## 1
Amino acid sequence: MTAPAPRPERTARVVLVALVVVGLALLGGAAWVGSRPAPTWFAYAPLSGTTYTPRGTPSSGTVALLSAAGTLLLGGAAGFAVGRRSRPAAGAQPE
């Protein structure tokens, strides 16, 4: 008994939904990390010249990385959807 042929339309929808969900999750994560309050204090030891900042402080690079990845995934999902929609019909003749 042979397996049924894969359904590309369903696979395309699953890929599209996955791209959108992961992209929105990354953008939501960037918004959450960016909204966390930054520590307003630091410790400075004048004799050693070192500065102490508490751990767990999100950097602006983390927010930028998360938002860039989310935006790229959403842009990829939009391009994927537009590309699938603008494909010529199966029986259409090229001009």
## 2
Amino acid sequence: MTTDTAPAIIPDFGTEATAGRKLAIICSKGNLDMAYPGLILANAALGEGVETHLFFTFWGFDMINKKTMGELKFSPLGNTATHMPQGLGGLPGITHMATSRLRKSIADVDVPEVPEFLQQIVDSGGHLWACRLSADMNHLTEEDLYEEVEGIISAADFIEKTDGAQLLFI
């Protein structure tokens, strides 16, 4: 048995480390609590100089739908991480209360609301794409979507645009 250890590898986040790097984030959930992980990761990647693309599909479409993007909800029903009895999650008013509390917590740490966060990502060079299948299923067109969405594209087109990217599915 050997006790030798390999030397620690310390990443270099200089310009050479991010040159040519791409991140592709698939946003598939439209709940308030599931919108933020993708947005926060996209923002962090852009801050490090990483080319970043977000693809909104299925319920994630709510994040870029003009009618729903500012009204995302949070339901504690079935979410054990809320540390509240599951029976309470289905009571009238609980989703409203939980959504209000989460919005306040987000605002208290100066994180922008979803529409403003999307604009910040675009202003930082991020790319927003809508899923063709999800648009067709929901009978939505580009006119229904946030203005900064670059287009409604197929999953195959997204894969082509993000060739070689690190992929995150949220």
## 3
Amino acid sequence: MADVDEIDHRVLRLLREDGRRTFSEMAQLVGLSVAAVKRRVDRLRETGVITGFSVQIDYSKLGWGIEAFTELRYPGTTPVSEIIRTAADVPEVQAVFTIAGDPDALIHVRVRDLGHLQQVIDRLRRAGDVTGTKTLLVLGSWTRDALASR
């Protein structure tokens, strides 16, 4: 586990709120010099605490406003790598979570409309050794990161 203190946690929170925040702004907010904040961010990157920087996208403005989770079931002998490969080949898949128990995987998808969702589910069902699916439509969502940016 990385050695992270309270100031590091504050820097991480500031970066979660706005990944483009400057070292100068963070330095003012945490009470350190710009150089000290840069050293902390560099150390957090080097130790793998910060794994990258990303952008948050409003997919509904791009026409991909429907979000769903699909449970996938496989025969007990299916390797995890096959489960990931099945979903990774589908561009609408945003994330794959392999999980213990039933189902074997939870797939996060984004699509344009319900017809498009049906096409994606049909494609997943035909891929690999999928023995069953169950799809749940997202009506709304909340994440800790979204809360931090308010």
## 4
Amino acid sequence: MRVDGQLTFNSTIPMIDATVSGLGIAYVPENLVTDELRSGRLVLMLDEWCPLFPGCCLYYPTRRQNSPAFAVIANALRHADV
């Protein structure tokens, strides 16, 4: 089906705002639209076709001295609820 008009976004927040406004559908991480789904402003579509995100994976050498900034990021990812 050909649809006239097309919106292109560089980030997810404007994409979500446009979808809530009724301008189309969006493929975004579910955790970003939890409130909209609960309130009924958005509904899940094609849920059976969406892959589950198992979480972040980070591989790095343990025998090298990593920077303090990298240690902070690795620790935050290790304990994040993603």
